[in-house]
Amino acid sequence: MRLDVGSRTDLGRVRKNNEDSFRIEPALNLFVLSDGMGGEAHGEVASAIAVETVIARCQEMEKTPAAVSIPRAHPEVSPRTNLLANAITLANQKVFETAAADPENRGMGATIVAAWIDGQRLSIAHVGDSRAYLLRAGSLDQLTADHSLVAEQVRQGILTPQEAESSELQSVLTRALGSREDVEVDADEQVLLEKDIIVLCCDGLTRMVTDPEIASTLLMSESAQAAADRLVDLANENGGEDNVTVIVVRAIQEVKGIFTRFKLWKRNSGRRSGV
Amino acid sequence: MARLVLKFEGAVIKEVPLGARPVSIGRAPDNEIPIDNLAVSNYHARIYVEAGRMVVEDLGSLNGTFLNDIRVERATLKDGDAILIGKHHIVVDQMRDAALLVDAGRKAHAPQVNETMVLDTRERREMLEQAAAAGERSQLAPERVRVPTLTVLRGRTDQKEYLLTGKLTVIGSSKMATVRLKGWFAPSVAAQINKHEDGYYLGRGDRVPKVNGVEIVSSVKLGEGDVIDVGRVRLSFLYRE
User: Fold this and answer.
1) CB-CB under 8 Å, A180 with B119
2) What is the SS3 assignment for A189?
3) What pTM does this model have?
4) CB neighbours of B89 closer than 8 A, spacing ≥ 6?
5) Is ipTM beyond 0.90?
6) Residue B77: which of B124, B37, B18, B121 has the closest Cα?
7) Which helix H or strand E contains B124, and what residues bound it?
8) How far, in Å, CA of B113 to CA of A172, rounded?
């Protein structure tokens, strides 16, 4: 399976600085996105520390798998997914320690969502309200459950999803990196199939753009980069109230034999000539 | 198991199952039963099961907890008992399968919050620790655990029955597969089952599986006794105790 990756981050229309960070590590097929918070207390510092820590930790574990023994905090998922969750646990410690050490950084924090593709296994781990979506066979599924007060109230049946969307309390998170010494990381996994599209994004996208809009944008876009660009534009057209960051990953059909090559060539040349 | 039914002026607002973990009631939003009313203390009372009996305990609230109109500190509960907290009633309902009702008018009244903030108060942490401690105590009388299984009804697989212990169960010939399909033309990933908070969902792989004879469109929640067809293999989904 081949991956087509696109990404974009944008200030939005209201905020004066971009507190989001993201990184794509093609060698590992690792994708990490973080939304910093803390305003003057340097949210962008928190999100950058979070992303770099996760990338560095995963690279380290990839190079010396035997040297890194980690406790399996999530017995229900594979060792690889546990590695990813463990990297996020470490990112929390780094953000927490940095905030505690420097009074200027006090109060900073971040959300994080990370996806790691290993063959056909897609590992997802997250903390906070940044999301991972999967578009498969035309339907869009949110793979992550937001760690926010309104999302928990919806899960408990106290609020309807419609009420949650208009709540003033949307910004209240129940979990984030940097607010405590330890954090509970959610970890999950999926089998990746050809033609799947994965989206990682911060709440700057999901509060401005509805799920059906996200789905139709992904379906209409010719490439992952075109989809990422269009999603960020949509968020800005709808108000752009926050920083927007999007990573789009498309799993492309591998060109195996001469017959598949011919079929794909025929289809693509048809498209180019506008048929 | 019993349910706690929260009512306001006769209308059902919420139902909460009473299991191994205590159910807390109070004005703070992290309570299992949050009540947004000034007459209610932040952590007002809790209800839990101890030695097989349901108990209500006042947590030192300002305005008190009333059981059938009598103020109580701690009392044993029975089916039909009504607990009064502020202006809300909580009725104890032993095993009745009423649908969850949501009061659409209910909404948290709170100041506008623009900046993202994290809810992380000291009380919340203490509550979690209390809940964890109570959870350990209640392990003396464990509830019966139901484990989902797949039983092979037809086709060539490496086992006749599989316990679903992970979040992801792959059906196919791939190395990742739990349910390993045999034969030359078996697809590497025929289908997958994902565990969500509320149950197990069957999704497509390189094949589109059928549930009870119908091809699935998107992923579907599996119910007791569902029959799954993937390629030449037929499986049934059952919970075992």
Assistant:
1) no
2) strand
3) 0.71
4) B6, B7, B8, B82, B83
5) no
6) B18
7) helix B122-138
8) 8
